[in-house]
Amino acid sequence: MALGIMLQYISDFQYYMDKYGDPRTNPWFLMSSPFPTLLICLSYVYLVKVLGPRFMENRKPYELKNVLILYNFLQVVFSAWLFYESMMGGWLNHYSFRCQPVDYTENPKAIRMVHACWWYYFSKFTEFFDTVSFNVFPKHKSRIMLLQYIGTLHIIIM
């Protein structure tokens, strides 16, 4: 009985996503269903809270300073490009700062903003590496909570 209810819920949810989802983004990575995103997030939590600490329990911290410098540099470049795309795709050209209706057309300006939104969404997954890296640098674990707090505020503000 419980399995039947769960399968019906999943079927109803998939119907809702197919009916009301944006058809322009359906073939894009992570856009056809929320389940891959859910799986990635649950795997991330398991890695950071269980597997990572258990793996590093009796090991010395890894020396990944250069990797982290490169990662941070690439994140800055990615964020700058994303800011540029969001400005040029709408906010500096034709978007209203009060209330902008969603443009579901194939208009190049609308598609550019949809792409910028998708890359912003994807950037949240690239930022998972920050917290994962703190598992291999145990002396920096106190910063994890602060980064998670800032990241949550960032999403709420946006």
From TrEMBL:
<dbReference type="GO" id="GO:0042761">
    <property type="term" value="P:very long-chain fatty acid biosynthetic process"/>
</dbReference>
<keyword id="KW-0808">Transferase</keyword>
<dbReference type="GO" id="GO:0019367">
    <property type="term" value="P:fatty acid elongation, saturated fatty acid"/>
</dbReference>
<feature type="transmembrane region" description="Helical">
    <location>
        <begin position="28"/>
        <end position="47"/>
    </location>
</feature>
<dbReference type="GO" id="GO:0034626">
    <property type="term" value="P:fatty acid elongation, polyunsaturated fatty acid"/>
</dbReference>
<comment type="similarity">
    <text>Belongs to the ELO family.</text>
</comment>
<dbReference type="InterPro" id="IPR002076">
    <property type="entry name" value="ELO_fam"/>
</dbReference>
<keyword id="KW-0812">Transmembrane</keyword>
<dbReference type="Pfam" id="PF01151">
    <property type="entry name" value="ELO"/>
</dbReference>
<keyword id="KW-1133">Transmembrane helix</keyword>
<feature type="transmembrane region" description="Helical">
    <location>
        <begin position="67"/>
        <end position="84"/>
    </location>
</feature>
<keyword id="KW-0444">Lipid biosynthesis</keyword>
<keyword id="KW-0472">Membrane</keyword>
<dbReference type="GO" id="GO:0034625">
    <property type="term" value="P:fatty acid elongation, monounsaturated fatty acid"/>
</dbReference>
<keyword id="KW-0443">Lipid metabolism</keyword>
<dbReference type="GO" id="GO:0009922">
    <property type="term" value="F:fatty acid elongase activity"/>
</dbReference>
<dbReference type="GO" id="GO:0005789">
    <property type="term" value="C:endoplasmic reticulum membrane"/>
</dbReference>
<dbReference type="GO" id="GO:0030148">
    <property type="term" value="P:sphingolipid biosynthetic process"/>
</dbReference>
<keyword id="KW-0275">Fatty acid biosynthesis</keyword>
<protein>
    <recommendedName>
        <fullName>Elongation of very long chain fatty acids protein</fullName>
        <ecNumber>2.3.1.199</ecNumber>
    </recommendedName>
</protein>
<keyword id="KW-0276">Fatty acid metabolism</keyword>
